[in-house]
Write a structure and sequence with these properties.
Keywords: Signal. The chain is mainly beta. Helix content is 5%, strand content 37%. It is built from two helices and 31 strands. Strand 1 and strand 2 form a beta hairpin.
Length: 477
């Protein structure tokens, strides 16, 4: 996680100058060189030394895995059965295979503690293993079964000195053949009730040792057809539109670990240090994560799941191909949660979600040009989605709303005639189903990987609301 945080620091500085905080993906840049201090060249966390381990192991004839109660219950050991070589990197308390959350404000200070200067723009950042200073997170409870583990953790705020986060994380781990299935529940209980912009999360992050340096995924436009994969060699933080919902770290023999998350199209990879030789306490490591945006409420409860697949590339794809396929058309119904939708420069009424997103249809910060109500990443062929139906009630003086979309080749939402369509609305507060006809629009072509809604009539937005029930490919009965 430490080099991930180099990238996030650079990104957060850019955020202060750029409007599209929640959705901007920056083009590749030269590797970032951090400032140094006399006491800590490079501003790396203090290196983890081998400590008294308190590992709980489970295993079968394919996989052996352990969590460590001296490392917040994070997974810090993973190997194929029959091998004693640990794949997981444990250089510091920000690595391992764990969950990390990101929210506002940034910088984040609490209880008289200020963040490490270098990480001041990470904001509210609970980390399952511990903090920058190598304090371990608190274990609340745990259970061990023959093929399963459970752990409940109070994480620490990464940039602060031994500061428990105002949330707890629960992880359920189960072995199934050559896979490790993990379910995560994060329960937030912040005193700060402000709602901040959605941010990307590490759900989870995976740090493996130097031999597993081959960063492989499928980024093509014909998923689940055994198309050629992409292998990344540059050691830089890269965000991938991954259309088969997996990414992998492999060794020279083509064996390693795949990370699969259902309906997830956004992953990251990177490499730190140099070379392809190293063990768990060495600095060199290779990284992947599932990287969804998440709108975090002060009292929210968020559940995710993922699967680790150990074996060859063929094993990893075989597992992914055997899972239920992701939606290929819009089918968002906001009955109990936001369905992965998130906000930039706008807020809603918060958690819990009860049959609708109740959104302030106006800019939270009027000095910024606009606001966006954003979908998660998707995989839609425009020929399958000639129309989108939006079930909503608007209370506003505005007479139009705008649907904007992006394609895999777009670094961000590129507002313009070929990426947007306006549709008329009625602002009387009554629910209606709005039919947005995209058939024949010259820009509705190729592949669509995200949409958002906004108000193009900003001068009319004061006091406006949107109550959004669904966004679907057919009218909701």
């Amino acid at each position: 996680m430490f080099r991930t945080r180099f990238y996030l620091y650079f990104l957060c500085v850019a955020v202060s100058m750029l409007a599209f905080t929640c959705v901007r993906e920056y083009p590749a840049t030269a590797p970032y060189t951090p400032p140094t201090t006399p006491t800590n060249p490079g501003n790396l966390p203090p290196q983890t030394q081998p400590v008294a381990q308190n590992r709980l192991f489970i295993g079968n004839d394919k996989v052996r895995v352990a969590i460590d109660l001296n490392m917040g219950g994070a997974i810090n050991y993973l190997s194929e059965a029959g091998s004693s070589e640990n794949m997981v990197n444990n250089y510091d308390w920000g690595r391992q295979l764990q969950t990390a959350l990101y929210g506002g404000p940034f910088p984040y200070s609490v209880n008289g503690k200020d963040p490490v200067y270098f990480w001041r723009n990470l904001g509210w950042n609970p980390v399952q293993t511990g903090d920058y200073y190598n304090h371990p997170a608190r274990i609340v409870s745990y259970q061990q079964g023959q093929n399963s583990l459970y752990v409940k953790t109070i994480p620490l705020i990464w940039p602060l000195f031994d500061e428990p986060a105002d949330c707890f994380m629960e992880h359920w781990i189960e072995l199934q053949g050559n896979t490790v299935h993990v379910k995560i529940r994060s329960t937030i209980n912040r005193a700060d009730t402000a709602q901040y912009d959605g941010r990307t999360q590490e759900m989870p992050c995976v740090y493996l040792n130097a031999p597993w340096y081959r960063m492989v995924t499928y980024t093509g436009t014909q998923p689940f057809t055994n198309g050629a994969v992409t292998e990344f060699s540059k050691l830089e933080m890269l965000s991938h539109y991954t259309t088969e919902n997996w990414t992998a770290l492999l060794n020279d023999e083509g064996r390693g670990v795949g990370l699969y998350q259902p309906n997830q199209f956004r992953f990251k990879t990177n490499g730190f240090g140099s070379g392809h030789v190293g063990k768990e306490f060495d600095v060199t490591s290779y990284y992947m994560n599932a990287d969804p945006f998440l709108q975090i409420d002060h009292n929210g409860v968020y559940e995710f799941e993922y699967t680790l697949i150990l074996g060859t590339l063929a094993d990893i794809r075989q597992y992914a191909y055997a899972q239920p396929r992701p939606e290929t058309v819009p089918n968002f119904k906001f009955t109990k949660d936001r369905q992965g939708w998130f906000y930039y420069n706008v807020t809603d009424k918060g958690w819990p979600i009860q049959n609708e997103l109740n959104v302030n249809w106006q800019r939270a910060d009027t000095t910024k040009a606009n606001f966006r109500v954003c979908s998660p990443f998707v995989y839609w062929k425009p020929t399958d989605v000639p129309k989108i139906y939006i079930q909503a009630a608007f209370t506003t003086k505005a007479t139009t709303a705008r649907l904007v979309w992006r394609k895999p080749e777009d670094y961000d939402f590129l507002d313009g005639p070929d990426r947007q369509i306006d549709f008329p609305i009625v602002g009387d507060g009554q629910f209606r189903t709005y039919e947005v006809n995209l058939s024949g629009h010259s820009g509705w072509s190729g592949l669509i990987n995200q949409i958002c809604l906004l108000n193009p009539q900003n001068n009319l937005e004061k006091g406006s609301r949107m109550r959004l029930k669904s966004v679907t490919v057919a009218p909701v009965q």
